[in-house]
Amino acid sequence: MLNSDVDGTLEAILNILDTYDSKEVELELVKFDVGPPSESDIELAKDLGLLLYCFNIEVPVGLRRFAERLGVEINHFNVIYRLVEDLKSRLSDCLPEEVTFEQVGEGHVIKCFSVLVERKKQPVAGVLVDWGVLNKSDSLRVLRGTDVIYEGPIRSMQVGTQAVSSVNRNEEVGIALPNEKITFKLDDIIETYKEVKVKRRIEWYPPGF
């Protein structure tokens, strides 16, 4: 919902909104007008969960208090650029976060052995950490040359007989995987990655902005 001070400014803002073409988040202008919003406008914003923008308008104290009682936020701007940036930010908040993976550690296999777990042979890699940190909670990748042998979670990490959740550079650790069919070889590269969620920004670039 948009209210502006004069027709010319209202038209300029409407022309900018017309350039919005993202398919990921819908933008719908429910109502627009010149002058301050009315109580019925505020009630409509409350009922439909609308954003209410006022451009270059002094909203009467009584209307502001009425909006506060209904829990309706009135967004005031007197620079079009600021209004558009605020709208872009709110649209961006509706986007799902992008999930990426950041490498946090690396090591190499210096020993290969197996242990009995529930009457099954469990391959274990004795790994020396070359840099960073290996966390049990992170995702693990096993590389043999340029081939990826395994990607996924870690079943267990042990230093001697002690279960551990992380190890640092120059430390040794025994690593087991959930898949007992995956076997290790000396000099396999062990990499660990943590999940990173990145906030996305809506792809909308109006002319002149």
Automatic annotation (TrEMBL):
SUPFAM superfamilies: Initiation factor IF2/eIF5b, domain 3, Translation proteins. Gene3D superfamilies: Translation factors, Translation initiation factor IF- 2, domain 3. Residues 2-88 form the Translation initiation factor IF- domain. GO terms for cellular component: cytoplasm. Pfam families: IF-2 (PF11987). GO terms for molecular function: GTP binding; translation initiation factor activity. The keyword Protein biosynthesis applies. It comes from the Eukaryota. Keywords: GTP-binding, Initiation factor, Nucleotide-binding, Protein biosynthesis. The keyword Membrane does not apply. Belongs to the TRAFAC class translation factor GTPase superfamily. Classic translation factor GTPase family. IF-2 subfamily. This is IF-2 domain-containing protein. It comes from Gongylonema pulchrum.
